[in-house]
Structures are given as structure tokens and as C-alpha cells.
Write a structure and sequence with these properties.
Layout: H1 15-34, H2 36-50, H3 54-58, H4 61-92, E1 108-111, E2 118-122, H5 136-146, H6 158-169, H7 180-187, H8 198-214, H9 217-227, E3 229-231, E4 234-235, H10 237-245, H11 254-263, H12 277-295, H13 301-306, H14 325-338, H15 343-348, E5 352-355, H16 359-371, E6 381-388, E7 395-399, H17 423-432, E8 440-442, E9 447-449, E10 463-465, E11 476-478, H18 479-484, H19 488-498, H20 500-509, H21 514-517, H22 535-546, E12 557-561, H23 582-598, E13 612-617, E14 623-630, E15 633-641, H24 662-674, E16 694-695, H25 703-710, H26 719-724, H27 754-761
Parallel strand pairs: 1-5, 8-16
Antiparallel strand pairs: 1-2, 3-4, 5-12, 6-7, 6-15, 8-11, 9-10, 13-14, 14-15
Helix pairs in contact: 1-2, 5-11, 5-12, 7-8, 7-9, 11-12, 16-24, 17-19, 17-20, 17-23
């Protein structure tokens, strides 16, 4: 019996054997054609080769082993070369020390008047904090969100990278495969681009390994938390805490810290409020962070179950709800430029800039303007409100116009003629000349003035002046009444008597820009407000009447502190220059108080404070003003049409706008709210010192009225009276200075009329 070949010696036909078998079959077919016997032997030869003895094939085993050994050697050599290349690359990878451009920029913080609430930032919205200032639960929340193996790893996470690769390849949700150290290497240091590529990824790994070897975990985590982007245009945990929760990072709760940690993954996608997919995704991510803190042992399950998704601020909008961010920012930059602060120090100097803006009063200003319908007025209509502190000119609030209609600043730029709001400067100029506010002017309308200020016949050349049609023609009035009723004819006469150059100088001393007055030098029209003056300068000019005669300069910045804690000096913090005496300021203020009590400004009267102010309306109602004050606050409201059209047909406004209507009511709406924060203070009462003059010159077209006026001893040397004399020794009343026998000598002080008596009494 034939022995069977042991199983270990059985051979499985190989690929080379099958090739031989096929060749043998072909040769057998050829042999069948020539001999039948050969054809019968061919299969035997094939079978003998298939089932040859094992010893024959075992003889070729060294060749197979040599092939396997060669393959393994090649693999080993490749691995050694790869490892060597990795080692060499790692050794040659420099330790990153230089940050990327702008990554360390902190910018400058701008604060409200309380010195704590941030308004906005200039430059990068980042504020660096120390490791100790970041609460431990906030640090662990970030670790739970981004790199749970941060303290135990070496800067890279192979499993995390593989997981991110698989997720991305399968079309699932994008997951962060980079550790905190890798993210820092990519986003902080120079040498790595943001381009997604394998080359960048390999470099990122080497840099991360270097960082982990040469820098402490504390330093890496602090750098990361001060530079990572959190959304809402904020970089760094401190800026994010301010933007989302309006608090400092060291005040964050566990839930708030977990929300900020969750935002790192997709800061431009997540929504903190609502029930949209981005909002639901953020809540799920927040829960993932909370659960991660439990896994890391930094939060118990009971504590985690008590945490609730936190409520964030609606939006990071700088100046809260006022919509004036751009205008405030521009004004701050203008003042910094005026102070010669380099722009580089602003965007990367870590300055702390404190302003005088009151957050609530900014809201009051907007509410007053919107209640009047300002957002729906035509684009050609510009309007604004600004309030300054009379003590130093600090701007407490302003509204420069709805930014949706126009981003042009309507309060710090000159946009409207001053109109009758310029008259208090004329009155102040007269008081500086030594006259009293009880001096008399003629309120008759119309009147025509010669270049020297004297009245001329209506048929002669001259400057024709008329009162507003609501005022009409008046008789002699004192300057208090002329101010309250806004008598144009009387104020033009006062301008001539005070001196037009003195009027311009006084207005300039009170803060009106000299450039605004220069085109109207020695022109009588300057007394009626032909100059275009910014509302900010108007509010500051009237502030001098409220504070007793000291000129102030309107400004927003109250203090600047650099990165080293040094305070930059500000020129407007010096005491104001005295322009008027306290008595002169009190007389102007008294006249403006009468304007609100019984004159054109009655709609601006307040219930809790005594207001003083002046209305102003330009020709054809192209511009309208109300500028007024109480002892603690001076406010100007302005409206104008830039195309010169009358202010009429405006939304929520009836008829044609004048200074005594819409501006006065806007002023009152704002001051009524702001005044609640201020205690009542009385205005200083005047003694009405100074020379009382009677400039109520009668019309030269009425000889009888002129003769009676010239009969007064104080007026006999007036130019009009001298012109009326027919010769030496004559008087305007006759041909001789001595009246004929029987004639009645005119009284040196005629019996006053009812109007004169009324003016004298009040």
C-alpha cells in the first residue's frame, strides 16, 4: 500500500506553476496533431509535475525567503529614514518666539463717564489678562471643550486628528482635531499659514511639540486664552466676557465660562439666543463642555445638573442702543488727533480713554429725537442734539443724526446758520462795553440802517431789517424784552452801538469759531446769525452764561492713561478763561430766562428747573434752533435743510418748523429726563449795573417823533439830531434854542408811555 504524503508537505499550486501548466497543455495539443501516442502521454507529464515530490519544491525555498527578507529590510530602511527625517526636521524646527502681526495688538479701550462701562475699542478688541485673573473653572471649561488631554499630552493628539479626518471624510460635523498647543502654534506664532494642507499640518505638529517641550502648560494656556477668537469681533477671554456678559473675566460663572469655551469651536456660526439651528447647536456644545468638566473631575454631576444655559447681552454695539457708535468713535479720533497722539499708539498702545458721555443721557437724546420723527425725515434734513457740562465743557450726551439716513455728524460740524441764537453774543458784547440790559432800543419794523448804524429814510439806500411776522412792529423796548421777543430791528441797532468788531470778538471769546465769523466781518447781518456755527460750540458758548462768564471748550475725552499708567495731559482740563463778569453773565441769563417764561421759547419751559434759552429761525425757515441751559447743563438742538428748502411737511410735524416749535419741544423732552438726575439750582439774579442807554431812535420819516426824541438831553448830540438842526443856535423844535414867549418848553423827561412804564417795571 502506497504511503500518503504528510499534510505538511502538501503544496498549493502557485501562480508560476499555473503558468507552466498552461504552457504544457498547449504543447500537448500540438503533439496530438502529429501522433496519437504522444497525446496520450501528455497528461501524464502534466500530472507528474503537479504532484512532484515535496523535496523538489523545498529545494527552491531559499529564493522565497530571500524575497521576504529583502522586503522586510526595505520596509525597515524606509522606517529608519522616515524616523531620521522626522528627528532631523524636529531638531531643525526653530522654537517660535515672534508672534504674528497684530496678534498681540490690544488696541485702546474707550469708556463711558462712569469710568468702567466700555463704549468700544479702537484697534484690536483684545485685553490681555494674567493667568491668575482667569478663574480656574473658566480654564477647565476651555480644556474640556478643546483639549481634554492638555495636561497629560505632549502638544499633539493623534487620536483627535484621526477622528477629525474620519469625520471630515464621512461628511459628518466638523470637529477640531488640533490641540490647544497646535491651535496656538497656528494662530499665534509666525511661520504657519492658515491654509489647509498636509504640509502646514506637519509643520504645525513640529511647532506644537517644540512649544510643549520648551514652554510650560500655564504659559501656553494663558497665551491661548488671550488670543483665541470668540466671535462678536473679540479676541481673548477678557474682551469676550465684556462682549457677551458685560463683566470682567474674573466675574464669570461656571455656565458663562462654559458658553465662552463652547463658542471657540464655531464662533461665526453659533447664536447665543433664539431657537434657530445655530442656537440649538451652541446649547448642545455648551452641554458637551459641562459634561466634559464632569469627566475631568472638575464638576460634580449634581453641580452640572444645576447649571443653566446663561443669558447673554443682545448684541455688542458699543454705545448702547444709541446707534451713535460711529459718530462717537470719529469724535474721539478727532480729539486724539488734535492732541497729537500717534495712530499707532491708539490701535496698539493699550490706552485707556475715558469720556464724559453718560450712557443713559445718550439714550434720552435719541429718544427725544426719534419721538419727533427724525429717523423718517428726508435725507436732506439734518438734525442733532448735544448737551455739555457748563463747568468744563464736557459733552454729556449727543445725537448727531440717524445713521441710516446719514452718517454725517450734525453736532460737531457746522451745518446750519445760527439765526437768532446768535443774539445773546451781541447782548454780551454790549454788556462788555459797559451798557446795561435795561438799555432801550426801538422795536419798530421795518427799519433801514445806514453803514454807521443810523436810521435812514425807507427810500434811501441802507440795510433793511424786519421783525418776524409773528412779532410785528413794536415800540421802544429794553434789551431784556428785545431778547425775549427776538426783535431783529432792535438787535441790529444794538450791534452797531456795541461795535460789530466787538461783537465778533466776544462771540469768538465765548467759543464760536473765528473761521465761521470771518466772512461777515463788519457786516450788520452778523448780529442776526448769518454765520454757520456747530451745535457743539453753541452749547459751549451758552455754558459761559450758565457758569458765570467762563469760556469752556466742548470735548468728549476727559482722561487718557497709557499702558504704563501715566496720564496724558489734556488742554481743556485747565480752568476756563473769564470772558464776562458774573454780573454780565447774570444779565444775559435773565434775558434768556424771560425768553422761556414769556417770549418765543415758552414751549421749552421745564417743571423741575428754571430754563433759560433762545430760539432761532433763519430766513425762509431753512434752519431752526433752540439753545438753552439750566445751571448744570447746556443743550443745543438744531435742524436744517441742506438744500435750502423750508423745514415743512416733516413727519410728525405740523406746518413749517421754527425755533419755537420742534427744536424747543425736542430740547424740553431731553432736558426733562436728564433733569431728573440733577438737583434744582437757582440762577444768579442780576443787579442790572451798567449804563442805561436809550437807542430808540425815531424814524427820520416822522419829524414830530424825531423832534420829541431829540428834545431829551441824552439824545441832543445824537447824529440824527445834529443833522436836523438848521443852523447854529437852532434846535430840532424850532428856529431858536430859546422858545418864544408863551411857548411850552419840552420837558427833559417826558411822561413815559404805557409801554415805557411796563418795560421799566419788568
Amino acid at each position: 500500500m502506497r504511503r500518503r504524503t504528510p499534510s505538511r508537505h502538501r503544496l498549493v499550486p502557485t501562480r508560476s506553476f499555473l503558468r507552466r501548466l498552461s504552457r504544457t497543455s498547449i504543447s500537448g495539443q500540438r503533439s496530438r496533431r502529429g501522433s496519437g501516442r504522444g497525446s496520450r502521454r501528455a497528461p501524464r507529464r502534466v500530472l507528474s509535475r503537479v504532484f512532484r515530490r515535496p523535496a523538489v519544491l523545498w529545494a527552491k525555498r531559499p529564493r522565497m525567503l530571500r524575497g521576504i527578507r529583502g522586503f522586510l529590510a526595505a520596509c525597515l530602511a524606509f522606517c529608519l529614514v522616515l524616523i531620521g527625517a522626522v528627528v532631523v526636521t524636529y531638531i531643525r524646527t526653530p522654537l517660535p518666539t515672534e508672534p504674528q502681526d497684530g496678534v498681540t495688538d490690544e488696541g485702546s479701550a474707550v469708556y463711558y463717564a462712569d469710568g468702567r462701562t466700555p463704549a468700544f475699542r479702537l484697534g484690536a478688541n483684545r485685553e490681555v489678562v494674567r493667568h491668575e485673573q482667569i478663574p480656574e473653572h473658566v480654564r477647565w471649561a476651555v480644556i474640556a471643550a478643546e483639549d481634554r488631554g492638555f495636561y497629560s499630552g505632549h502638544g499633539v493628539s493623534p487620536m483627535g486628528m484621526a477622528r477629525a479626518l474620519v469625520k471630515g471624510a464621512s461628511g459628518g460635523e466638523t470637529q477640531g482635531g488640533s490641540t490647544i498647543t497646535q491651535q496656538l502654534a497656528r494662530n499665534y506664532f509666525k511661520g504657519l499659514s492658515q491654509k489647509r494642507s498636509f504640509d502646514r499640518k506637519f509643520k504645525e505638529i513640529f511647532v506644537a511639540l517644540k512649544l510643549d517641550e520648551h514652554r510650560s502648560k500655564k504659559e501656553i494656556l494663558t497665551l491661548y486664552l488671550n488670543t483665541v477668537f470668540f466671535g462678536r469681533q473679540t479676541s481673548g477671554i477678557q474682551a469676550a466676557a465684556r462682549a457677551y456678559f458685560d463683566k470682567d473675566v474674573w466675574q464669570l460663572t461656571v455656565a458663562e465660562g462654559a458658553l465662552l469655551a463652547a463658542m471657540i469651536q464655531r464662533p461665526m456660526y453659533f447664536h447665543t439666543q433664539g431657537d434657530t439651528p445655530p442656537a440649538r447647536a451652541l446649547r448642545a456644545r455648551w452641554q458637551y463642555v459641562i459634561n466634559g468638566m464632569v469627566t475631568l473631575g472638575k464638576l460634580s454631576r449634581a453641580q452640572a445638573d444645576r447649571e443653566r444655559f446663561p443669558q447673554t447681552r443682545d448684541e455688542w454695539r458699543g454705545v448702547d442702543v444709541s446707534g451713535q457708535t460711529l459718530l462717537v468713535r470719529q469724535r474721539v479720533l478727532d480729539e486724539l488727533r488734535e492732541l497729537d497722539v500717534p495712530i499707532q499708539s491708539v490701535v496698539n498702545g493699550k490706552l485707556k480713554i475715558y469720556t464724559s458721555l453718560d450712557q443713559r443721557w445718550m439714550r434720552y437724546a435719541e429718544q427725544a429725537m426719534k419721538a419727533a420723527g427724525e429717523p423718517r425725515w428726508p435725507g436732506t434734513v439734518r438734525a442733532g442734539l448735544i448737551a455739555v457740562d457748563p463747568r468744563d465743557g464736557a459733552v454729556k450726551a449727543f445725537y448727531g443724526g440717524d445713521p441710516k439716513r446719514s452718517q454725517y455728524d450734525s453736532v460737531f460740524n457746522p451745518v446750519a446758520q445760527a439765526g437768532s441764537t446768535f443774539k445773546p453774543y451781541v447782548l454780551a458784547a454790549a454788556l462788555r462795553r459797559g451798557y446795561s440790559a435795561r438799555s432801550i432800543v426801538n422795536g419798530r419794523s421795518p427799519q433801514k440802517f445806514a453803514p454807521d448804524g443810523q436810521l435812514t429814510p425807507m427810500t434811501a439806500p441802507g440795510y433793511l431789517v424786519e421783525n418776524d411776522e409773528k412779532i410785528g412792529s413794536l415800540g421802544p423796548v429794553d434789551l431784556v424784552e428785545a431778547t425775549a421777543q427776538s426783535v431783529n430791528t432792535g438787535y441790529v441797532k444794538l450791534g452797531f452801538e456795541a461795535g460789530l468788531d466787538n461783537v465778533a470778538r466776544t462771540a469768538t471769546d465765548l467759543g464760536v469759531p473765528a473761521a465761521a465769523l470771518a466772512p461777515f466781518k463788519n457786516q450788520a447781518g452778523i448780529t442776526l446769525g448769518t454765520a454757520t456755527i456747530p451745535a457743539a460750540d453753541q452749547a459751549a458758548g451758552y455754558a459761559a452764561f450758565a457758569n458765570g462768564g467762563l469760556a469752556v471748550r466742548p470735548h468728549v475725552i476727559t482722561k487718557i492713561v497709557d499702558a504704563w499708567g501715566r496720564e496724558i495731559p489734556l488742554p481743556w482740563r485747565r480752568p476756563g478763561r473769564r470772558v464776562l463778569t458774573t454780573e454780565q453773565a447774570a444779565q444775559v441769563t435773565y434775558s434768556l430766562r424771560q425768553t422761556v417764561q414769556k417770549g418765543t421759547g415758552r414751549r421749552a419751559a421745564l417743571t423741575d428747573h428754571e430754563a433759560a434759552g433762545k430760539t432761532g429761525t433763519t430766513d425762509r425757515n431753512r434752519a431752526a434752533w433752540f439753545v438753552g441751559f439750566i445751571p448744570q447743563l447746556s443743550t443745543a438742538v438744531m435742524m436744517t435743510d441742506t438744500k435750502g428748502a423750508p423745514l415743512k411737511g416733516l413727519y410728525k410735524q405740523r406746518g413749517t418748523v421754527s425755533g419755537e416749535t420742534t427744536p424747543a419741544m425736542i430740547w424740553r423732552a431731553f432736558m426733562a429726563k436728564a433733569g431728573r438726575d440733577l438737583t434744582f439750582e437757582p440762577h444768579a439774579e442780576p443787579a442790572f449795573t451798567g449804563q442805561v442807554r436809550n437807542w430808540a431812535q425815531p424814524s427820520p420819516d416822522n419829524p414830530a417823533e424825531l423832534a420829541q426824541w431829540c428834545s431829551l438831553p441824552a439824545n441832543r448830540k445824537a447824529p440824527a439830531c445834529l443833522k436836523a438842526q438848521v443852523g447854529r443856535g437852532t434846535s430840532p423844535l424850532g428856529s431858536a434854542t430859546t422858545p418864544p414867549r408863551g411857548a411850552t418848553r419840552p420837558s427833559a423827561r417826558p411822561t413815559p408811555t404805557r409801554v415805557d412804564t411796563r418795560l421799566r417795571n419788568g
